[in-house]
Amino acid sequence: MIKLLFIALFGCICTVEAQLVMSKASPPPNIVFILTDDQDTLLGGMDPLVKVKKLLQDEGTTFTNMFTSTPLCCPSRASILTGRYSHNHETLNNTISGNCSSLYWQKTFETQTLAVAAQKANYRTFFAGKYLNQYGGKSVGGPQHVPVGWNQWFGLVGNSKYYNYTISDNGVPVQHGANYHEDYLTDLLANRSVDFIHNHKMRYTQPFFMMISTPAPHSPWDSAPQYSKMYENNTAPHTPSYNTKAVNKHWLVRQATHPMTKESMDYSDNAFRSRWRALKSVDDLVERVINALSKMKQLDNTYVFFSSDNGYHLGQFSLPIDKRQLYEFDLRVPLIIRGPGVSKNVTRSEPIVNVDIAPTVADIVNGGKGDFPLMMDGESLVPLLNSNNKPKWRSDFLVEYQGEGKDSPPPGCSPTWRGVSQCFPGCVCEDAYNNTYSCVRTLQPQHKVDLMYCEFTDTETFVELYNHTIDPHQLNNIKDTVDPTVLVKMNKRLIMLGLCSGKTCREQSYID
Ligand SMILES: *[C@@H]1O[C@H](CO)[C@@H](O)[C@H](O)[C@H]1NC(C)=O
Ligand SMILES: *[C@@H]1O[C@H](CO)[C@@H](O)[C@H](O)[C@H]1NC(C)=O
Ligand SMILES: *[C@@H]1O[C@H](CO)[C@@H](O)[C@H](O)[C@H]1NC(C)=O
Ligand SMILES: *[C@@H]1O[C@H](CO)[C@@H](O)[C@H](O)[C@H]1NC(C)=O
Ligand SMILES: *[C@@H]1O[C@H](CO)[C@@H](O)[C@H](O)[C@H]1NC(C)=O
Ligand SMILES: *[C@@H]1O[C@H](CO)[C@@H](O)[C@H](O)[C@H]1NC(C)=O
Ligand SMILES: *[C@@H]1O[C@H](CO)[C@@H](O)[C@H](O)[C@H]1NC(C)=O
Ligand SMILES: *[C@@H]1O[C@H](CO)[C@@H](O)[C@H](O)[C@H]1NC(C)=O
Description:
- This protein is α/β, with parallel strands linked by helices.
- The protein has a domain at about 30-315 and about 330-385: 3-Layer(aba) Sandwich (Alkaline Phosphatase, subunit A), CATH 3.40.720.
- It is built from 15 helices and 18 strands.
- The protein has helices spanning about 1-10, 15-25, 50-55, 75-80, 85-90, 105, 115-120, 180-185, 185-205, 250-255, 260-295, 330, 355-365, 485-500, 505, and strands spanning about 30-35, 60-65, 65, 125-130, 150-155, 165-170, 170-175, 210-215, 300-310, 335-340, 345-350, 350-355, 395-400, 420-425, 430, 435-445, 450-455, 465.
- It is globular.
- About 55% of the residues are buried.
- The model is unreliable at about 1-25 (pLDDT under 50).
- The protein binds 2-acetamido-2-deoxy-beta-D-glucopyranose (8 copies).
- One 2-acetamido-2-deoxy-beta-D-glucopyranose binds near residues 90, 97, 99, 102 and 104.
- It comes from Ciona intestinalis (Transparent sea squirt).
- InterPro entries: Alkaline_phosphatase_core_sf, GlcNAc_6-SO4ase, Sulfatase_CS, Sulfatase_N.
C-alpha cells in the first residue's frame, strides 16, 4: 500500500495487478496528527520547537501558506474534523448555542469526521487532548459521551487547561489536580500516546490513526517547571503593525486603546513568554512520539501531521492578546507533514486551508488515490506531498466568522458597554457580535496575486481590502482607491464561496 501510494504520488497509472501485489507486500500507513491550540506562525510561534524542526520539518514538507478558515478554536476544530467550512458544519462559535459540541452537532456532523472515515477503512483510532471547547458539558452528554469514530478516547472536558481538569477516559470522568509529575496535561498526553503506540503493535494488525491535541500554547499557559524561567528577557515581537492605530479598519479594531497602555504591553509580553514556555513541552511530546514510532519500527510507515487551530496576535493594531481577527497573524497556522513518500526538508507555497486536513486523512486511509467523502469542502493534499508534483491547485478560499458578544457589560467596564466580549486588559475588547465577516483570500504566488477582501455584517457594512504584494502587514485598506472592478469581482467570488458546499467549494476562481 505504501509503495502503491508512492507510485500514485509520482503520477503513474497503477494497474490493478500491481495494486494487489503491493498491498500484500506493505502494510497500510499509520497517521499521527498533532494539533496545537492557538499557535501562530507570524509572531515566532514555531521558534521554540527545535525538535519539531529536526524531526518534522527537516524530514518532511512544510506548507508556508497554511490558513484556518475561521480564526476561533471551536469552529476551526469542527472544520478540521469534518473538512467543511463553518457555514456547512454549523459550528459558529465556542458556545453550545453556537453548536460547539451541541447535541445537534453530535448527531449530525460528528458522525462524519476524519475518525469515522479512518475507522471505515479499518483503522484503529485514538484521540487524546482538547476536542471541542464545550465537550463534556452536562447538558451535552457529559464526559460519558464518547464521539463516534474513536476506539480509544481520552478527551479533555471543556477548554484548554494544564492542571485541575477532568478528562474522559473512554467515557469515565477522571479528575486531575496540580502535581506536575501526575497531572501536567501535555506530558500526560505524551505518555498516553506513547503507550498507545507501544501496545498497538503488540495486539493489533490494523493500521492506526491518532489525533493528539495539546492545550499549549493556549492560556492559562502553565509551563513545566523546568521551562518556567526561560525567555525571561523576550518580549512580544514588534511587527510593523504592533501598537499601531487602526486606520480605515472595522469598528472593533478602531475601539482599541492607542497607544497601548503599559499594562496591556506587559500583558502581551507575559503572554508571549508563557506561550513559548508551554510550547517546550509540545516539543518534547513530538520527540517522544517519534521515538515510540521508531522503537516499534513504525516510523517509516507513519505520516505525522503537525498543525494548529488558529493563529494569534500580541499587540498588533493595539489589540493586546487573542485571535478572532481577519488578519494574517490570526489566520496563518503551521502545517508540516512527514511520512512515506513525502519530500524531505522542502517547503511548498500553495494555499492550504484547515478544511483540507480531513480529506487528506480520508484519502490516505483509502490508499492515497484521491478518494475522500465528496461532501467535504477541502482538497486532499496527497498530490502535494511529492515536491516533483505541480498539480493544478486552488487560488483562493473562504474565511468566515461570526463574532461573539455578551448582552451584559464586561466586568469592570462601563455599564453601557454591550454586545462585546474578551475585554481585557483595560476594557479593550477582542470580540463583538458585529465582528462578523466573511472574506475571500486570493493567493497565487506564481502570479504575484495576494489579496484579502472582507465584508462585515455590521451597521457600516464595512469592507476591507489588502494587497499583500505591497502591504504584507495589512496597514492600508485600499477599498476606496482600488479599481472598482476588483471589488465587484471579489464580491461575486465571496457570494459564491459563502454558499459553496462540497464540490462547488473546490471549483476554481475567476482569476484562472
Ligand atoms: C445548532 O444548529 C441547528 C441547525 O442550524 C440550529 O437549529 C440550532 O439552534 C443550533 N444550536 C443548538 C444548540 O443545537
Ligand atoms: C488547582 O486547584 C487547587 C485547589 O483548588 C488550587 O489551590 C491550585 O492553585 C490550582 N492550580 C492550578 C495550576 O490551577
Ligand atoms: C509521564 O511518564 C513519565 C515516565 O514514565 C513520568 O515520569 C511522568 O511523571 C509522567 N507524567 C505524567 C503527567 O503522567
Ligand atoms: C536577562 O537579562 C539579564 C540582565 O541583562 C541577564 O542577567 C540574564 O542572564 C538574561 N537572561 C537570559 C535568559 O538571557
Ligand atoms: C535543508 O535544506 C536547507 C537548504 O534548502 C539546507 O541548508 C539544510 O542543510 C537542509 N537540512 C537537512 C537536515 O538536510
Ligand atoms: C453563538 O452563536 C449563537 C447562534 O448564532 C448565538 O445565539 C450566541 O449568542 C453566540 N454566542 C456568543 C457568546 O456570542
Ligand atoms: C458594533 O457593536 C457595538 C456594541 O454593540 C456598537 O457600539 C457599535 O456601534 C457597532 N458598530 C458597528 C459598525 O456596527
Ligand atoms: C497589488 O500590488 C501589485 C504590486 O504593486 C500590483 O501589481 C497589483 O496590481 C496590485 N493589485 C491590486 C488589486 O491592486
